[in-house]
Amino acid sequence: VNGAWQGRITAAAAAGAAAAALTQRGAHVTGTLTADAGPLHGTFAVSGRVHGGALRLRGRRGRIRLVWRAHLDAATWSGPLAVRGRRTPLRAALALTRDAAGGVRCGDGWFASDVMPRVLVPICAQCHVEGGLAATAPFRVTVGDAGATVLSALREIDAGDPSQSKILLKPRAALPHGGGQRLVPGSAEDDVLARWVALVTAPGCGPAGGGGGPRTGAQLWADECASCHGADAGGQGEAPNVRCATRVDDALGRGRGTAMPAFPELLGADLSALESWLDGLCTTYGRTGAALYAGNCATCHGPTARGGRNALGVAGPGIACEGGGDYQEKVANGDGRMPAFPALDRTDVDLIVSFAHAELCTGG
Ligand code: HEC
Ligand code: HEC
Ligand code: HEC
Predict the structure, then answer these.
(1) What average pLDDT score do residues 293-298 get?
(2) What's the CA gap between 66 and 81, in Å, rounded?
(3) Residue 220 in contact with residue 273, Cβ under 8 Å?
(4) Exposed end of the chain (fewer CB within 10 Å): N or C?
(5) What separation in Å is there between the alpha carbon of 104 and the centre of ligand 2?
(6) Which of 52, 129, 39 is nearest to 92 (CA)?
(7) What are phi and psi for residue 9, nearest 5 degrees?
């Protein structure tokens, strides 16, 4: 049952959406169940067992407890849901089907890589957790489970007017907030959260997630690449500046061993969108010899062109002081394990040579 599930709760009094993020180890299952059905709403921590086609989960949220007994039919788990701890016990039916989109929504990557660790866990989880001051508020942070938290956070977004979203206005204390002011507009944390709101409300990215239209290059970058290469693609840590990279298709198709995963699902229209977005950055920040070298040559020949080895184990020799003719020849035709770079013209290579000779070929 590992993964993301979506479906519906139906009861005489209420009906609405439900979603779960579950982890299975052996027969033991843990995770969260998020309900949005009239009086039954919020995120429940759940645990239980799966045995063959039978699943039994117990969950709680504050004083409210639920038990779900489900059986598997084709790709859907369904069965009765009993809810206690309310004035009137609720009997409902819950059916969950594997989230066909794999739970991918615009902003999900950014949410997990930045919004959770930089804002929701350090700040909001002081109160918006089981047992916290805001335990009964609908907005719930489930530490360690971005999938469940994102579902809860999406409810606090105003798709019609994103600037009026409660998830921003409450912690800014622009609306009365039981937790007082927790975010200062313009601060790094506020910016991380505001950018997520902008991502999920961008055209074609309805907060319901179902729409899931094509993502723009900027969205793809923020979701899939920014956590390693930096928000502006300028590089950080081991991940190089790739603003002027010309072999994005190769990097996405094959990945880079343990350094970077492959992204085969992005090789169609998404690849073009990413390439255009990076081309724009290359122009904005400058198509310089340094940027061309960093994005195309540095992984194999080393950041200072004294020789290196990329994450796939291809070793390039030191080339800092190599003659310009040799550069032109190798870049045009490749050599052995060095690929050709058809997207780099002679001017580009001249820029790389000038950069290497002036900046890197020092001390002999
Ligand atoms: C010190 C405790 C505390 C902290 C920290 C806190 N909150 Fe709250 N929050 C509350 C309380 C209490 C409520 C319920 C009363 C209310 O609605 O203002 C609440 C309500 C909310 C609501 C309204 C929920 C709804 O649907 O009605 C949102 C949205 C919210 N908080 C967002 C946040 C965000 C985002 C953060 C982190 C940046 C945060 N809060 C940090 C205490 C806190
Ligand atoms: C988990 C971190 C990580 C993520 C996520 C990631 N990268 Fe990388 N990427 C790296 C690292 C590290 C390298 C350098 C690999 C090496 O040294 O061979 C790299 C290399 C590259 C290269 C190739 C540079 C070369 O000369 O071989 C390109 C292009 C690239 N990344 C683009 C992207 C794009 C586009 C995305 C998003 C779809 C992305 N990366 C996501 C870490 C990442
Ligand atoms: C995937 C790894 C890889 C990348 C990326 C790469 N190279 Fe190479 N390069 C090599 C290897 C391996 C050799 C040695 C080829 C041989 O002799 O078999 C080499 C050789 C060269 C040589 C000749 C060095 C000599 O001693 O004869 C030059 C010049 C060179 N590369 C320039 C570049 C430039 C400029 C770029 C970026 C536009 C680049 N390379 C990108 C792997 C790479």
Answers:
(1) 98
(2) 7
(3) yes
(4) C
(5) 20
(6) 39
(7) -110, 135
Q: What is the Cα–Cα distance from 49 to 170, expressed in whole angstroms? A: 38
Query: Which atom of ligand 1 approaches the CA of 166 most closely?
Result: 29
Phi-psi group of 295: left, alpha or beta (phi > 0 → left; psi -120 to 50 → alpha; rest → beta): alpha
Averaged confidence pLDDT in the chain = 87
Residues in the chain: 364
Q: pLDDT for 114-158, tens place per residue?
A: 899 999 999 999 999 988 999 888 899 998 888 788 878 988 988
Give the rounded distance of the alpha carbon of 96 from its chain centre: 23
**8 Å CB contact between 230 and 239:** yes
Q: How far is CA 233 from the centre of its chain?
A: 16
Measured from the alpha carbon of residue 321, the closest ligand is 3
CB 18 within 8 A of CB 6: yes
3, pLDDT greater than 90: no
Contact 179, 120 (CB under 8 A): no
